Amino acid sequence: MRTMPRPSRSTLAGALVALWAGLAMVDAAAAEPPVRVGVLAYRGGDHANAAWEPTVRYLAERFPDRGAEMVPLDLPGMDAAVRARSLDFVLTNTGNYVELEARYGVTRVATLHSSRAGASGASIGSTIIVRAERTDIRDLADIKGRTVLAGDPDAFGGFQIAWGEMLKAGVDPYRDLKELRFSGFPVDRVAFAVRDGTADAGVLRACLLEELAAEGRLDPARFRVLAPKTVPGFDCAVSTDLYPDWPLARLASTPEDLAKAVVVALFEMPADHPAAKAAGYEGWTVPLDYQSVHSLFRSLRIGPYRHLREVSLVELAREHWEWLAVGMLALLWWAIHSLRVEHLIKVRTAELRAANRDLVHEMAERRRAQEDARERQKEMDHVARLSILGEMASNLAHELNQPLGAIANYARGCTRRLEAGTGNPDQLLEVTRAIAEQADRAGQIIARIRNFVHKRPSQLEPIDVNDAIRAAVALCEGQARNGNVPIILSLGDDLPPVPADRVQIEQVVLNLVKNALDATTEAATGPSDRTVTVRSGRDGEGRVEVAVADHGHGMSEEARSRLFDPFFTTKAGGMGLGLSICRSIVETHGGNLRATDNPGGGVVMRFVLPVANGAPPSGEEHQHHG
Amino acid sequence: MADANRTVYIVDDDPAMRHSLAWLVGALGVPVETFASGEAFLGVIRPDRPGCLVTDVRMPGMSGLELQDTLARCGSLLSVIVISGHADVPMAARAFRAGAVDVIEKPFNDQVLLDRVHEALEKSTRAAALQARKAHVQARLARLTPRERQVAELVVAGKPNKVIAAEINLSPKTVEVHRHNVMEKLEVGSVADLTRLLIETD
């Protein structure tokens, strides 16, 4: 809120001597107190003395009977002195005057007249400069997002007027710039910074650029003035309107006569008076209209209108209390909600933790139960296999007796020939080979039996169902031969592998084939019906299907309904476990086992197993159901 | 010819068992022939051929016992030995009733089997000899006229010529002629010989 003072060439010593002389004259001539002039000393008391003491001394000379006294004051001091009415006049800058006028009713009686002043007498303005080659910044709106340097936030010509102009151009320097910096004194630095490119644009008091050029300190051609305005009679480049210069104002309490006399004295000061030169002006003129300054300050909400800023917040609150209330309620709700959520989280976490503990416990229990069930099922399967082998024991013994008997015959035939000396080496060789062959055959039968009854963990692997069928049928061959019931195999040759436990599937087929052989043997039908047929193939859904057909008596209604019940049997020697276990095995493989009537008499037992790429039961599931 | 009459026939559906039995029996130095089934054997054998048949009981198709029955019905001279995996009493009884030399249960002692084979061959040979003799007698009997046959039977019954003549209304002289013809045709020298011959042929 100050304008830049003009450089003063007066010497401090001379001024002090003159002041002392003036005061001495006042003391000697008059009883009235000297005229007290408060001067804004914005750069310190010394500077103010140098600049303005000649002016005060001029007044003192014009009022020899009472004299004049200069009181250098800073801004707060000025405010306090005006409030205390300890001054008659204030000589202060435009901004401060406007504030004092608004607050204490001080009245301007004269305004400094500058030689550069335009036709209106106003001479304070701002010049906004950029480097001449910055074609990207063409007008004020282009400084958005740029770095701008100004002298001081409180400088009237050096910033505030430009600030107002920027607002008019739609640029709020405090919001829309990349950076707003202030150089402080000396404000010449602003021009140099723009020249050196450390700032995109600079704000100068009007005419400072011309003054620096006149002093030869920079080349004006290197700068361009943004939004230049033409003011008649004002020959400095300027980007803004012009505002009045420093005024001299009287306080409300200052006598009218004194005010008049002072105004007259000032107006009569010649333009080349040393006092004018000291302070850099060309005399005094009629008080200008400071309304434009009021408007500017009001729009900027500074100076006397600073309260607009603060009040506006309150007013805002008053205007929009509903929203504030809603906001407060929302905040309150949020706070309560947060607390509630936190509480809930704590509770839920505790619950979850407890549930988790229970779950872990339960899982362990279930795993144990499943293991038990699996173990039991394994035992059961094993017992069932032993049981069916037991039922087949005599047949298996017969089966084994064949190769053993053959071996014995071969060996004894050899012995006799060797004893008799009739052995022909070629014959003996052939026969010993036959012996070895039969030993192998016996070994294979034993291996099949051992494989079948061997206790082992259930394991799923892709198997060829036909292999399991052949192995099972091989175990039944003795019975088939003895019962004179041929087993006819009709096996599909393009079956996909099935994820299954080979021995368990073998067990199922063995059970079904053995049942079929038993039924057919008992039935004693005609020779053409004395067959058991084992078929394999794929069903309509692409699953692998195995069917075992006999020509027995078929099933009674009771047998049909209880077919898969454990311990239900129609056989004298049977345990009744076979089919029940067969079904549980097939079902744990994801398939099913059904009994239907054979159209030619007897029964067809049929089971299907899902193939690997279909929807195979997982290994887990298999084991769980056991 | 004697060798051919001592042939041992082996019927068993199990190739190894068949082959090994042949090898064992072959140690006796007799001819051995093997067949995979009763049907195959029946297609080859002649009923008047003596020899020894060794057959398994349980076979697909015709069983050993059925084969034995069929041979018996044909009047075969073969002696039969039945081998069984697990012999039970009804089965064994049936085999013996049908004239089996023995029923041997597996596993068997080779000496027992060979003894039985030997025995069976002897029996069959004997039976063949008897059969031959019977045939010879029958042939001679066939030479008699009905009247001569009638006289022969009455002679064997121990009746004197006079009684015979009275019974059949012939002269004693005629009866004497018939009696002489009978003795001549049947090549017997005494009433005792005649009696034995007629009993044999009954």
Task: Characterise the protein shown here.
The complex is a heterodimer of chains A (626) and B (202). Chain A is an alpha/beta fold and 626 residues long. Among the domains of chain A are: 173 residues, D-Maltodextrin-Binding Protein, domain 2, CATH 3.40.190.10; 113 residues, D-Maltodextrin-Binding Protein, domain 2. Chain A is built from 19 helices and 20 strands. Chain A has a 6-stranded mixed sheet, sandwiched between helices. In chain A, helix 15 runs parallel beside helix 16 and helix 16 runs antiparallel to helix 18. The relative contact order of chain A is 0.07. Chain B is of the alpha/beta class. Chain B has 2 domains: 129 residues, 3-Layer(aba) Sandwich (Rossmann fold); 58 residues, Winged helix-like DNA-binding domain superfamily/Winged helix DNA-binding domain (Arc Repressor Mutant, subunit A). Chain B is 56% helix and 12% strand. Chain B is built from 9 helices and 5 strands. In chain B, strands 2-1-3-4-5 form a 5-stranded parallel sheet, with helices on both faces. In chain B, strand 3, helix 3 and strand 4 form a beta-alpha-beta unit. In chain B, helix 6 crosses helix 9 and helix 7 packs across helix 8. The longest helix of chain B is centred in the middle third of the chain and has 34 residues. The radius of gyration of chain B is 23 Å and the shape is elongated. Chains A and B meet through helix 13 and helix 14 of A and helix 1 of B.
